[in-house]
Amino acid sequence: MKFQNKWLRAAIPALLLHCSIGTVYCWSIFSQEIADYIGFSKSATEWAFSFAIFFLGISAAFLGNIVEKDIHKSSLLAAICFAAGMAGTGFFIWYGGAHKGSLLALIGIYVCYGFIMGIGLGTGYLSPVKTLMLWFSDRKGLATGLAVAGFGAAKAIASPIMQAMLASLGEGGIYKMFLILAAIYFVMMFVGHLLLAKPAGWHEPATKEKGARAIDCIKEKPLVFIGIWLMFYLNITCGLALISQEKMIIKCIGLAGMAGVLSSVTAIFNAGGRLGFSAWADKMKNRNTIYKIIFVLSIAATGIVVLTKGITDRGSSTILLIFVLVLLFIVNAGYGGGFSNVPTLLSDHYGMGNISAIHGLVLSAWAFAGLTGNQIASLIVNKVGSFVDDGHGNMINPDGYQAVLYLTLALYVVALLISIFLVDHKKKAAK
Length: 431
Prior knowledge:
By secondary structure, this protein is mainly alpha-helical. Helices cover 77% and strands 1% of the residues. The protein has helices spanning 2-21, 27-38, 42-69, 71-98, 103-126, 129-135, 140-168, 173-195, 214-218, 222-243, 246-252, 259-281, 288-308, 318-350, 355-362, 364-383, 398-421, and strands spanning 388-389, 395-396. Strands 1-2 form a two-stranded antiparallel sheet.
């Protein structure tokens, strides 16, 4: 019964929640269709996704205490906000189709997909994490990695389904898809909400004063918290900077025909890194070691491509082509692993009492990285080098993509130094 409860009350509901909200990363599949349908440029609609990631982090930071106090309320809030945001997005896409170029439609999509869905994302992401660590106290990393891997794998699972829906729903398929999926994901998340429960024997630790918040715990080790926040922010920023240019880099090295397949492979590395690195960390005395490994691997892979000019070489050598692919695989795996190891690393330093709230505060780094990673990479690509035709109708900028690596290499080195010198692991928190 204990084994059964562990899965029914923690793992399965976590997957139901995370596999639903993780579909936010499917945005690139239908963003052009939305832009065309409502009569705006793709760049104008792209802000909806940026707002969604921003409010994911911000809502996690501000609502972490609500998750801490009652996972049932928070998981229900997540289901309602995520589904309502999807349905609202569908409505404003329909409205935009009927009123081409309507600013109201664009703002409505920003509010629904960005703000309302963002609240659902933040609370839904946090709600099952502490519960998983409580049920799987001996394998915390494996448990949280499983759920976070579900968030990462959601895109790979939902993408073909969404593409099939867009192809089969006919005229107005884009808004119909949102309305249908809003209902489906609400059911999935509501079932997860009903199943999710902390172990019966768990009692929240008594605090010195009623209403004590996560900030009180953080004050005991402020430098550690700052170090983890910065380390997390830098890893996401580097990941987004490269992942946002991934398809163009693949085309740049002469593999345009395999761009779709290789993007799926990198998505597998992303999800695999979430599960693999967190499970690996369970076997280590110091979970911070896993971040050192991630950063060292990322520095090595990036450094090799920088030194060999693997991107500007444009695939003229098989070994250089392999170096670039290995870089993309490692960055994706490290990006995912960075997410899954944060809650367990925090629990090692601050205990389990306020872990949801503290984890929520760290997720604010995700919010700011979501606004900077892609944009910095785009700025570099647009300012450095020049765009040329690759011979297959694709405009590429090899020097620009290579220049992005100089930035990410420097940031990875800074992140490694923070991991070594700022994230102290010697002092253990009380259980």
